[in-house]
What we know:
Low-confidence stretches: none
Strand content: 15-25%
Order of helices and strands: HEEEEEEEEH
Shape: elongated
Oligomer: single chain
InterPro entries: DUF2793
Radius of gyration: 19 Å
Distance between the termini: 31 Å
Number of helices: 2
Structural class: alpha/beta
Protein name: DUF2793 domain-containing protein
Amino acid sequence: MSALETGRHRLPLLAVSQAQKEITHNEALVLIDALLHMAVEAVQPTAPAVTDNDIGKSWVIHGAPTGVWANKAGQIACWVGGSWRFVEPHEGMRIWNKSTRRQSLFISGQWTLAPAIPSPIGGTTVDSEARAALAAILQYFRLIGIFAT
């Protein structure tokens, strides 16, 4: 982190007597737009074919990326029209994955798919199914940091 960027998301800051402040300001707005209520299209190792209709969409870079995504594994790629912006995730970051319709969390340096919580069905003893459902809910709350582990 430099003195001219924020500590958490590395948003650019304006410098005293800086010329062309609109460039720095616009770059910060692009990153805020990408990071606020983060949702990604998918998790994949290669950049998709994109057009102006894809401006504002993001992807998590996975595996052994190639092409313009080379050496960016684990990062979030945001298409801003004509170029990519790359965001390094921080511990505890959450994203909504549109392709899986599930939340992912960045924990211990890697993206982890949040567990799906099944609805209790069938069975003859209501207590055991209810306990299993509650255990799954508690596990999820612990994973996302609502409850301590």
